[in-house]
Amino acid sequence: MPSLPNSVDSALRQRAARVVPGGMWGHLHAARLPEGYPQFFARGEGCRLWDVDGNEYVDLMCSWGPIVLGHRHPRVEEAVRRQAAEGSCMNGPGAVMVELAEKLVATIAHADWAMFQKNGGDATTTAVTIARAGTGRRKILAARGSYHGSMPWCSPSLVGVTAEDRAHIQHFDYNDVASLEAAVDATKGDLAGIIVAAFRHDLGRDQELPSPEFARRVRQLCDAADAALILDDVRAGFRLHPAGSWEPLGVRPDLSCWSKAIANGHPLAAVTGNDRFREAASTIFVTGSFWCEASAMAAALATLEAMEEEGAIARMTAMGQRLRDGLAALAAENGIVLRQTGPVQMPMVLFADDPDFAKGERFCAAALRAGAFFHPRHNMFLSAAHREADIDRALEAAAVGFAAVRRTG
Amino acid sequence: MPSLPNSVDSALRQRAARVVPGGMWGHLHAARLPEGYPQFFARGEGCRLWDVDGNEYVDLMCSWGPIVLGHRHPRVEEAVRRQAAEGSCMNGPGAVMVELAEKLVATIAHADWAMFQKNGGDATTTAVTIARAGTGRRKILAARGSYHGSMPWCSPSLVGVTAEDRAHIQHFDYNDVASLEAAVDATKGDLAGIIVAAFRHDLGRDQELPSPEFARRVRQLCDAADAALILDDVRAGFRLHPAGSWEPLGVRPDLSCWSKAIANGHPLAAVTGNDRFREAASTIFVTGSFWCEASAMAAALATLEAMEEEGAIARMTAMGQRLRDGLAALAAENGIVLRQTGPVQMPMVLFADDPDFAKGERFCAAALRAGAFFHPRHNMFLSAAHREADIDRALEAAAVGFAAVRRTG
Question: Among A36, A317, B208, B220, which lies 20 to 30 A Cα-Cα from B145?
Fold first, then answer.
């Protein structure tokens, strides 16, 4: 068990406590998870993950999104090896940058062009900068509680952040047209853009798909104000629709932000845009030492090709539905009321009457010991490597979790 | 020649012009270089680089810094392969994160702890956030013209940036104690930190090492104000001194920012800090999807070990001196006055009486055709893979460059 005092994980935590503030930072800090969750991992393969003590899990987090084809997908890893054998970080990009940009433009409905970065937050910051450059205006509207990165302008924490860092960020409520209209009015003609997540996937609350009315109104308001509609597809991108998460709604953004799943775990982000913002995008100065690294771009190209050939989105949808149905049935058998919301490929599982997430944590801790890595408050992620047998294995672990909730509930 | 209309490079540029705004972005844009420089690269090995048309260059840019042991260093690449064969982007870090943090703490004089990111700009932004969190104050002093990244708070461009993004950034002149003191006074008790580059390496001007008086005064002023001294060692780090670039001056920062050379081209950045800022560092929220990627950390550990074993800094120093001496001799033979400034491992070569860099561009364009990749305005970088024969090869190319300057000058 990872929480045992003489485990490899606990020995590493003790060492980390000396040389890393708080032992770890950010969203991967095990302190944000129930007791018993490991901090350190040794190995991944397909939809399975092993911690440093050799415990094996059906991985339902997929590294918080990046792993979309399964850990160490052979085709992606081979593409990286082949590129790395020639060169990756050079005095300019490789030819693969052009191939990848062409692939994104061919695949993503609104995209006339692409630029590449490393972090999802690089992509959202770049998009905001382009929106301001293209409009000559300053205000950015964002939904209250939506996560767009951990930079000072959008971090969920205010520690070390100044008021001026977010002086031009104003808020509306996701899916609330009236609050959106009021927020646009409040910009008094200074609206540069509206940044909006593909769907509402805030921590610790039910997920909500965008209502068609809301999505269309975002587009209309941006058009009326000549402002940029920025779709933050960092978390959902490539799991809902290959052409962009709002394509089924018939609403196209001006700028989209991509990262996480784009290269199956290799570090890459992208902004795509339409021709209206091409000139603005060419006038800003954004760069990074590793943004042109050819290996990550080769990984992305292989990932996008493999996703198409494997029918990855259809697979994740089928397996996500199997998981959702199985969890619903198990919960019902145990007399437990669950709320499962949002796209099945990105499951959010919350317990009724669980304001402090105590039931969710009990469920997760027991399911973890039984071999499945669930999250009690954050949306989870399926990959194309999940098969029926893996989902059924996760459901066996979930059954142990529900029994633990029933016993103590 | 890369500039020929029917070259592979020019065909790629035409394709890129359709799918990337301006055909490229940032510091790797070939438009920032003299005509004839290639935009796209195919291969690197040691200190040699090949463009997509098969032209071979002695690489004096080293990817603008990251390549410190030479392209595709066997030990580093093997460490990456070994880690990638197990897993890299997982639900938490690998054990290698602890090993790397311990290595940095053991090597870097001021460091009691480390945190990891992807971009140099992530490191500087994180350090600024920690300084504000730890002091409860807001003002950050930076030297006019120093580059600390391309985020809105520090980008050299104001396009798409608002005044509020830099409301709390105030300036002094590098190496100018009086201007530094005045800048501190102007913060009126609201000083969170002073961020300072390891030495003055601004674009297009002579490099300046920090005067001992200046460095000591930065430290004194931070101590007097209980503010953070942030050393931005992103560009110079690991090339001047393994314990930190200001260690020979006897001045230790509270926080240091690292990236570029840390993993020999693999994407990684780090902030190191002392115990005074440990608590603050544990209270801020910063994170990224790929910040715990184990492969890049394995690359960093292998890079730091290989640098020690190969005596990398001594080698770069010797080869940098050989290059500087050779360039000086060639310039004198041609009756040309050069200014070579800063550490020899990071050469800056500027021509006297060359306000528009026309001579420098002519020199570089001719030297490029003769097989060496110089830069006319930006500091260059040596690697531990450069040998006498490589420097001599670069000097042969430089002789062609000087001849071109003499002919037209």
Answer: B220
Q: Could you state, in order of their start, the residue ranges of all structural domains in chain B?
A: 8-64+311-408, 74-309
How do residues A104-132 score in pLDDT, each as one tens digit?
999 999 999 999 999 999 999 999 999 99
Cα separation values, B27 from A284, A370, B160, Å: 12, 50, 17
Instruction: Inform me whether the pLDDT recorded for A387 exceeds 50.
Output: yes
Q: Which residues contact A83 (CB under 8 A, 6 or more apart)?
A: A94, A96, A294, A295, A297, A298
Task: For an interface test with A, give the residue of B89, B112, B150, B232 to mutate (most A CBs within 10 A).
Answer: B89
- In Å, how far is A192's CA from the nearest CA of chain B? 10
Q: pLDDT-derived band of residue A2, with 50, 70 and 90 as boundaries?
A: very low
What percent of chain B has a predicted confidence (pLDDT) above 70? 99
- Confirm or reject contact between A9 and chain B (CB < 8 A): no
Closest-CA residue of chain B to A45 = B87
User: Can you point out the beta strands (E) in A201-345?
Assistant: 228-232, 255-258, 269-273, 338-341
pLDDT at residue A1 greater than cutoff 70: no
In this predicted structure, the answer to whether residue B93 has a pLDDT above a threshold of 70 is yes
Distances (CA, A) of B181 to A87, B95, B128, B188, B200: 46, 44, 20, 12, 18
Question: Are A95 and B159 inside 8 Å of each other by CB?
Answer: no
Contact A151/B155, CB-based, under 8 Å? Answer: no
Question: CATH classification of A74-309, choosing from 3.40.50.1100, 3.40.50.2300, 3.40.640.10, 3.20.20.70?
Answer: 3.40.640.10
Domain A8-64+311-408 matches domain A74-309 at the CATH topology level: no
Q: Is the pLDDT of residue B3 over 60?
A: no
Q: Judge whether B152 is closer than 8 Å to chain A, CB to CB.
A: yes
Task: Give the confidence band of B4 by pLDDT, cuts at 50, 70, 90.
Answer: low
How, if at all, do strands B269-273 and B113-117 pair?
antiparallel
Average pLDDT over residues A88-105: 98
Q: Which residue of A has its CA nearest to B47?
A: A90
Which chain B residue has its CA at the smallest distance from A135's CA?
A: B160
Q: What is the mean pLDDT of chain A?
A: 97
Contact B98 A65 (CB under 8 A): no
Is the confidence at residue B212, as pLDDT, over 80? Answer: yes
How far is B166 from B296, CA to CA, in rounded Å? Answer: 32
- CB of A64 within 8 Å of a chain B CB? The answer is yes
Q: CB neighbours (10 Å) of residue A327?
A: 24
pLDDT in tens, A181-209: 999 999 999 999 999 999 999 999 999 99
Chain A interface test: which of B51, B90, B238 (most A C-beta within 10 Å): B90
Closest approach of B213 to chain A, Cα-based (Å): 30
**Percent of chain A's residues with pLDDT above 70:** 99
Interface of A with B in 104-133 (CB under 8 A): 104-105, 112-115, 118-122, 125, 128-133
Best residue in A13, A14, A20 to probe B by mutation, most B CBs within 10 Å?
A20
Structure tokens at A20: 């890393």
**B8-64+311-408 in CATH: which number?**
3.90.1150.10
The pLDDT of residue B408 = 87
A274 vs B334: CA distance, rounded Å: 52
Of the CA atoms within 13 Å of residue A263, those in its CB half-sphere come to 32
Name the residue facing B86 among A42, A156, A285 (closest C-beta).
Answer: A42
Rounded to 5 degrees, φ, ψ at B117 are -140, -165
Question: Are A171 and A314 within 8 A, CB to CB?
Answer: no
CB contact under 8 A, B118 and A290: yes
* Identity of the residue in B26, B66, B122 whose CB atom sits nearest the CB atom of A287: B26
Predicted pLDDT at A5: 74
